[in-house]
Amino acid sequence: MTNLVADREAFTPAAEPDPAAFRSLLAERGVEYTTWEGWKRIEAREEELGAERGRKRLKLLSREEQTSVARQA
Q: What percent of the chain stands above pLDDT 70?
């Protein structure tokens, strides 16, 4: 597999194609994830950090920092 979109036909369909079932599976497996809202918070923080340094964006490199920003309310 080289590209998620190009390879989508090769994936086995979900037994329960429901977003709540997917989130439950991730929780059962202890997988941390972010929501779309969390992703937007990460983007906003990266743009804020970049603006402080005269750049468009400054990437958050550590997973811990990304998770912290994504989980902020």
A: 97
